[in-house]
Amino acid sequence: MTKLTTQNEFIARHIGPRDADTAAMLELLGYASIDALTDNVIPESIKGSSILGSQPGLSEADALAKIKTIASKNQQLKTFIGQGYYGTHTPSPILRNLLENPAWYTAYTPYQPEISQGRLESLLNFQTLITDLTGMQIANASLLDEATAAAEAMTFCKRLSKNKASNAFFASQHCHPQTLDVLRTRAEPLGIEVVVGDEASITDASAYFGALLQYPASNGDIFDYRELVARFHTANALVAVAADLLALTLLTPPGEFGADVALGSAQRFGVPLGFGGPHAAYFATRDAFKRDMPGRLVGMSIDRFGKPALRLAMQTREQHIRREKATSNICTAQVLLANIASMYAVYHGPKGLTQIAQRTHQFTAILAKGLRALGYSVEQTFFFDTLSLATASKTAALHTAARKAGINLREIDSERLGLSLDETTDQASVEALLAVFADGKAVPAFAELATGVSAQLPHGLLRESAVLSHPVFNRYHSETELMRYLRKLADKDLALDRSMIPLGSCTMKLNAASEMIPVTWAEFGNLHPFAPAEQSQGYSQLTTELEAMLCAATGYDGISLQPNAGSQGEYAGLLAIRAYHLSRGDDQRDICLIPQSAHGTNPATASMVGMRVVVTACDSNGNVDIIDLKAKAEEHKERLAALMITYPSTHGVFEEGIREICQIIHDNGGQVYIDGANMNAMVGLCAPGQFGGDVSHLNLHKTFCIPHGGGGPGVGPIGVKSHLIPFLPGHASMARKEGAVSAAPFGSASILPITWMYISMMGGDGLKRASQIAILNANYIARRLEEHYPVLYSGSNGLVAHECILDIRPIKDSSGISVDDVAKRLIDFGFHAPTMSFPVAGTLMIEPTESESKEELDRFCDAMIAIREEIRAVEAGHLDANDNPLKNAPHTALELVGEWTHGYSREQAVYPTATLIDGKYWPPVGRVDNVFGDRNLICACPSIEAYQDA
Ligand SMILES: *Cc1c(COP(=O)(O)O)cnc(C)c1O
């Protein structure tokens, strides 16, 4: 008889190999069971350190029902809080065809341009949108949030300002409070003094190297900054302006009044509030400063045939190259959200956007008139969408009345309140607001207020330049056109919905549909991050439960969910270490040991907290050289602050000496930061919080199933041991008021349901099984490929962890074929390349994850072996050293028509294995020329004429 209890089918859905496959793979490796395999991989000294229980996982249906109950505890009031977060309508075709579409959300950061032309085009549209609206010359492809973008602007000004004598940064009191908080956090370790004040009363501009202004101001005022900017410039200070994109459709853009940087949030362009994130921030500057810009930048280049092709320009992977001298530590940014914002602009076009702005402004003007008629003093003469009211002793009562009416207002202070209108405001909302403020008096009639109401924008600051005249913002205004444009772009790209993406260190695993479903529920999407706590009880339960789950998975005692990427987790973690040392009077501890194999974000982060990086060596087996580490720890004993170490190492090995390494650091007074990007090899098997780590970040967008979104969003929570809990990031809206590292208290809160769902459905045993299969899959690939490509490192047992590095350098020597050639040839086989040249130049790092089936692993191995055969043909002289399928890869469809002059056939070029006939990915461009692109940097959509000339 069939069992009547619900079976958990999810674990086997999440995991790729079937039981018979697992058995076959284990047999190839010579192990009797999966436990026997992983018992051999995990070093003796840390075995059994996991404290994850074996609680059973919920079925998909049960987990969805449970999270629905949690979600329903969030209350959705009509919110007028503003302060950088506004209501918006995500256009349905963008919601369905982009935000909820795996072709968009499962893609990786577009480092391989040939398979990324679709999202690169969308990001170029974003950059064009930003330069156009801000009036600046160049914009990047997104930053993490407005507050961190402002902090990046501060350090950017510091690097570029000619006023080298000053260490002071002026920040207007009219900036959003959360921006000021993050600025203070960032400034302190760098010795920068943030002076918050009223820009109207600045007497000596030469006291500052830079300044931050808000436009329109946080309280709603619109100030004319022209004269002020000129004064700062005369004093050699640079000026950054945090500006609202919707307002810029009507107002003179910062670029036209002299700003050196424009930054802000693109949230209100169709991205749900989501309790604070994820949202895309933007950053734009002058052309002359482009080389110092933080974040990723999309640029035009040409492909092998001289045709236009897009790629990431200059700063690509810059932390890996410039290490502690990098301009910023940002790696994962907010690509998916930038793409939503850019498509919102594509869909609405200049007319639509301007209309939304005008309507929002018009409703605000009507409301202001009504409030004045009711006897309120509206503080603004000029405003766009935000008003502040001096409500004196009535303030508290008004908040109460508003909440009774289902309305949230902004709590400026005990005597004033604020309100911001937005795209979702309609006549009924204005009437509801007036009813609250009427307090029993007759409500002024909307129609009467609306007659004769005039715009309240300052005449001298009305925008005169056109907005968004580029064709891309003027042709996709019907839903059919937009739907097809989204499909056309998605079809150009390879994402996880087409094939395995074997990127080492990046953990491209399944982002299950059941995990994704709650993300776009209104119960999670419609909450403002600063709504009163009683309205976010669902979020409060979700985050509390998630923190407990992550503590169990890592062996730590406390978690902060605030950092919105791994890099930001590193930053928060090092800040906690720094604060801990300071609290003990250990002010001199400023040295951070980092093994040479570390990810580039590690040294880049250490320098952001004012630490000095000392690099330690690795031995020939890829392990941290413990003798060197010990010598350096002892040499710097007095000043040792921390070690940053990745575990299992970026070389793909579980180092046996990890406990000893942690001990050496502790013995010398330092703290151990374990970079948790490789947590996918450890969950349920061993726990960094139990074998010596004091703090780790996790990349929820790697191990814990949040999709990469084409380069973001991410979540980079940190786990800490109990002694560091007091130093976790705070926020004005949390118990600890200081030390915010993100604009919102829970960072990218609205994607946390993904991880909650994953852990809930997998349960303790399922999570452990996932780690085991991840290790099995990696070892299976290593074993199948080792006779064709040398596997660079393995443990003393001959096994790798959850990823393996193939050494292409000997092949390069014997055949002239490079890692690039292998990576690009994989595209012809329908695969995304593995991680290239990290952590060792001339190598490929492969991480299959547990989600890939044996069929897919074999398909990949077969492709790699077929490529090796081609290389052998080059070595043997059967294929020309320069004109061969590897050097010319990837091959486009266009190349096949017309004359074929290569010394190999068309079939070999595009159908190297017969299985491809059934489903072939065609790259839209040939190999992209990187050098050309950097020499001729173009980072916005060129005009149609420029295309035609080319
Ligand atoms: C991915 C990664 C990081 C950076 O994380 P982001 O989320 O991209 O900022 C840091 N360290 C290692 C080892 C990584 O693989």
From TrEMBL:
Any one annotated GO CC term: cytosol
Cofactors, names only: pyridoxal 5'-phosphate
Domain Glycine dehydrogenase C-terminal: 770-891
Catalytic activity: N(6)-[(R)-lipoyl]-L-lysyl-[glycine-cleavage complex H protein] + glycine + H(+) = N(6)-[(R)-S(8)-aminomethyldihydrolipoyl]-L-lysyl-[glycine-cleavage complex H protein] + CO2
A GO MF label: glycine dehydrogenase (decarboxylating) activity
HAMAP family: GcvP (MF_00711)
Role according to the record: The glycine cleavage system catalyzes the degradation of glycine. The P protein binds the alpha-amino group of glycine through its pyridoxal phosphate cofactor; CO(2) is released and the remaining methylamine moiety is then transferred to the lipoamide cofactor of the H protein.
Quaternary structure, from the entry: The glycine cleavage system is composed of four proteins: P, T, L and H.
Family named by the database record: Belongs to the GcvP family.
Protein name: Glycine dehydrogenase (decarboxylating)
Taxonomic source organism: Pseudomonas guineae
